[in-house]
Predict the structure.
Amino acid sequence: MSIADPIIRVENLTVGYGGKAILQNLSFEVRRGEVLVILGGSGSGKSTLLKHMIGLYPPMSGRVLIEGEDIVRAEGAHRQAILRRFGVMYQHGALFGSMTLLENVRFPLEMFTHLSDRAIDLIARTKLDLVQLSGSEELLPAELSGGMRKRAAIARAMALDPAILFLDEPSAGLDPITSAEVDQLVLRLSRSLGVTFVVVTHELPSIFTIASRVIMLDRRSRGIVAAGDPRALREHAEDDRVRRFLNREPEPA
Amino acid sequence: MRCPAWRSPTTPGHLTRMPNPASTDAAAPILQVSTTETGAAVLRLSGVLDAEHVEAVWKPALDALQRLNDMPVVLDAAGVRHADGAGIALLLDLLRQPRLPHAPVRIEGLDPRYRTLLDQFDPAHFHPRARRARPPARLREVLGRGGVAAGTSALDALAFIGESISALAAAVLSPRSLRWRDILLAAQRVGADALPIVSLISFLMGLILAFQAAVSMRQFGAEILVADLVGISLVRELGPLMTAILLAGRSGAAFAAEIGTMRVNEEVDALVTMGLHPVRFLVVPRMLAALVMTPLLTLYANMIGLLGGAAVMSTFDIPLSAYMRETFAFVGLSDFLGGMAKTIVFGAIVAGVGCLRGLQTRAGAASVGLAATSAVVTALVLIVVADGIFAVAYYYLDI
């Protein structure tokens, strides 16, 4: 398989709530091994799109193919197998509050593998080491800072070595240094493990650091207004909105 | 269309684990152990080392390494076709074992792709360590900790009672400062919404009391006395008690969960920084609602309970009018007022405990659950204790 081989293909996806479409007739691909950033202003449907891509909500129409298999219509064991191919980091981490960090990362391994206790322990500790949380295994999520919580959530999402990681606002609410550390983590995992990332964010420094490609959503046109390399788009995008967004300029009065 | 939150959009089916590695599986990893004439040993790992298969060789490899503890060991990984995080963890586990200086372990032939994965980890970070056993707590330590915890929680409760009384008094002195909409909403939830369950339970209670009594009384031809018995038990004891218990289960738990979630979401902190006292803003409306609604609910429960008794008596050929006349002749005003006085105390207990437990909630979903549980249990215990005190007091006051 080539590098440009699409690992996720979204076809004619229309999503919305209560019969009202937020995004219409969306089609795009995610290539194997890239870091794709979905960006757009508030209310443009970034998180909604992410939640439909991971099969949390059923779309109004269209398909989401993950490694060629449609998650929208998959049921039962087939659906379980597709779910196993990706991990998700939710915006606030969604770590289980009653479990320690190590137990949080162990949880998927305990539920889905036949490995021994000793093996699960070591695997979970390697995942925490990858996100630089060695030594914090016995802490509870409530005892962590925001950045640590997001890193721990990434470690849990990686527990079963999925090929794809979805990150929802990985740097929102973090200080610039911690935010930059999370960016470095994404780049490191993408290079060393070859994991494909789909990241929802609107933090510009983060976008320019991690994105191999971006797609930009817009509330008014209910679709993709631009796609490509963010640096090129910043200079040469045809659409004013895209250039303004990437240059952090206000709307003209 | 949105799905209800408790189920996946499509049926998730049964939770399927990875298949248990069968020995016939072509991907199953193989471990071969050999020794060379130079006094070294070779552990040859081949096949697929992933989460699905690696368990088959994990323990054997560790055991082999343990047996070869006095000679250098080479891990020959040239035959590893694929390794994921679990396979890398196995190699790491073999490399991190404590060894004698003359018997090191090194790895050879690992595909560079997996080599870089393994090199991310420093085996020193993963020293196999004995679980730190906590020394068993001594008796005096247990007693000391328990005492401090009990003392702190008593002080907390005392401070809360003081604050609530002062906030209630302030509210009564300046009723215009109250948010009446909050109070009415709380009153609706505590009172009106509880009517169906209160009706069901009290009707059933009247029915059972009357029926059990009637069967015995009938032998003496004294069925009419059933009215006395049902009336006095309901009005003095069971009506107030059952209503309070229902209230603790419905509203006490709800107060604790609601305020607890507000605490977890920092909404309580937001109130404090706006200069609004949480007790005044959150507790007073709920307390006032409970203080007003508990007596009303009890009154209603008593009437429904009496109706339940009447329903049984009508099957024993005692007309409603005779039943009512007997009840009102026997159950006096002091019985009724005595019962009502209790309900005010019960209402204060349920609302107070619910709010206090809510405000004591720490972080996380589990602690909201604990707060709700503790609100119900504490309220029930206090209701029983208060009821006992009332019984003794009424006995000496001859009510």
